Amino acid sequence: MSLSKDKNWWRQAVVYQIYPRSFKDSNGDGLGDIKGITSKIDYLSSLSLDAVWLSPFYPSALVDGGYDVDDYRDVDPKLGSLADFDEMLSKLHAAGIRIFVDIVPNHSSNLHLWFKEAIAAEPGSAARNRYIFRDGKGASGELPPTDWPSHFAPSAWTHESKMGGKHNQWYCHLFAPEQPDWNWDNREIEEDFLKTLKFWADRGVDGFRIDVAHAMKKDLSEPLQSQPRYASHKELELANGTNVLFDRNEVHEVYKEWRKLFEQYDPPRVAVAEANVSAEGAVKYASTAELGQCFNFELLDANFIANEFKLIIDRALVNAKKAGSSTTWCLNNHDQMRPATKFGLLPTVDRVNWRNSNGTSSPLDEKLGTQSAVAGSMLIMALPGCTYIYQGEELGLHEVMDIPESEIQDPQYLRNHKIDKGRDGCRVPLPWTKTGSSFGFGDGGSHLPQPKHFGDYSIEVESADPSSPLSIFRKALALRKTLIAPEDMTWHETGDAQVLHFSRPNGWNCITNFGRNHYNFDGAGEVIHSSGPLGKAGDLPPATTVWLRSSL
Ligand code: GLC
User: Fold this and answer.
1) Do residue 461 and residue 375 come from a single domain?
2) Entry's SMART domains (predicted)?
3) Substitution candidate for ligand 1 out of 64, 112, 245 with most atoms within 8 A of CB
4) According to DSSP H, which parts of 167-281 are helical?
5) Residue 88 and residue 94: Cα distance in Å, rounded?
6) Whose CA is nearest to atom 9 of ligand 1?
7) In this structure, is residue 142 part of a structural domain?
8) Has residue 141 been placed in a domain?
9) Which of 42, 412, 534, 545 is most buried per CB count within 10 Å?
């Protein structure tokens, strides 16, 4: 299969997120790797994907699952080599699947050559100016320079002595201390990232997912301003590009320059921003003059409630139009609780507290959760725009709630007073087979413990069951390719507040029953597929989506 030269291939693509450490281990060291991915291209093909997005696979001590990058232009030897990467890329392309790589521009790791140089260098030196080093406050500089917070630690400043520095300065990190922030006011950094983008684009990479894309540029004018907590989406909007730490006007200049680089390729390289801003704030990032797309994360927090979905869908479509882009739909990713679990909890349950109670503070309706998640996925697949699937979502995998504290890897837990158990529960390696060592993930165990029930959700078991989430996904994704329609949709009145019905311009209809009652769709069209068994004569059971073909 050859890749089309269509410049707009990405607008309604299906992109599958691979978390490389947890996908497939080819050498039995307990960590997933590049050759593991290459060995499973048949599986990826069976999902009728347009592209895969690989979370970071660069050399890293894995303090933050690889989002602590030692070298942006190499492959972690634990995961393979550049030659392995090239082989994977050419085999993916031969199978008609494109590839996005993750770019982490806000911070490197403390093991990056330039950070090692910075720590060894004098204050005020060019090496230190690649990062954000400052003198501390207090009589002898014993206090951090500002009150800025970090996602994974109380303060965004760490004294250099913690990293072996011999001077009395502090450096800035919005995430873990092992993730020092780059100084984006330094042209050398801007140029180095252009070099990184070019490095991967020249190798044939088709697109980029940009990590924390609303960060990078900070107000570094002296004296540094106070910013004791992160601004809300509303506050960022009101700040209009002038917040001290996020969503600054200058970051858009960076993306305009990246766009010029993307346009030098045929077809142009594409990008999607991970920007924690409001749906309206995302418009600039998604504009065709900048990255071209921005993740629409609103469904990540949604409950399985019709009106919540509808409001989010309407807002996202309006904003995508404003940006001249198409929107992205996702129910989860490597930072989020698995949707089968989210939707199996009562909407009133605080998900973080529930996770911290190891899932014991209130009951989980596992079956309802799985059904709702598959119904939700079939709904988003039918919408105009891109569908993102996070590995394991197609199996209806649940969050793993009982990872022993001693095995937790996530800095969100380890570096933050162990308040929030963090994100490891959705990063547990995939089960490929019903039995065997780590359920077929690899021969050497698994870097995060897999629960006993994982075998029942394995690709082997689900492939053999026509009613499994995997079989439903496979059929839906294959059909989606044939049903794809112009980027438009129309809502239809259902007379039931818990049922959403929309159609696409080619007569492709999607009806989802979010409620607890049955809904009758008799006469709305010919059934093409459903996320679960249907009743007789147009009966749509609760937590089910049906696709229909109607005459125009
Ligand atoms: C993004 C990633 C997350 C990571 C953080 C810091 O939000 O998705 O996994 O911890 O950036 O790089």
Assistant:
1) yes
2) Aamy
3) 64
4) 187-203, 233-239, 249-262
5) 10
6) 335
7) yes
8) yes
9) 545
What is the pLDDT, as a whole number, of residue 231?
96
Å from CA of 212 to ligand 1 middle: 7
Using a 10 angstrom Cβ sphere, with 0-12 exposed, 13-18 middle and 19 or more buried, the burial of residue 281 is buried
418 falls in which pLDDT band (50, 70, 90)? Answer: confident
Give Cα 348 to chain centroid, integer Å.
25
- CATH number of the structural domain spanning residue 130: 3.90.400.10
Q: And the tokens for 117?
A: 């140089």
Cα 416-419-424 angle, rounded to 5 deg: 80
Instruction: Specify if 479 maps to a domain.
Output: no
Q: Whose CA is nearest to atom 5 of ligand 1?
A: 67
Same domain, residue pair 137 and 98? no
Question: What total number of domains does the chain contain?
Answer: 3
Residues 36 and 129 occupy one common structural domain: no
Q: Token pair for residue 498?
A: 């818990």
Contact 305, 293 (CB under 8 A): no
Expressed in angstroms and rounded, the spacing between residue 435 Cα and the centre of ligand 1 is: 32
End-to-end CA distance of the chain: 33
Q: What is the CATH number of the domain that holds 541?
A: 2.60.40.1180
Ligand 1 centroid to Cα of residue 296, in Å, is 16
* Confidence (pLDDT) at 412: 86
Domain assignment of residue 465, given as a range:
14-106+187-470
499 shares a domain with 356: no
Q: Are residues 524 and 389 in the same domain?
A: no
pLDDT value of residue 421: 85
Q: Tell me: do 76 and 118 sit in the same domain.
A: no
Average pLDDT over residues 353-360: 90
State the Cα–Cα distance between residues 170 and 162, nearest whole angstrom.
10
Model pLDDT, residue 420:
81
Residue with tokens 């996320």: 531
Residue 324, pLDDT above cutoff 80: yes
pLDDT band at 551 (very low <50, low <70, confident <90, very high): confident
Question: How many residues can be counted in the chain?
Answer: 552
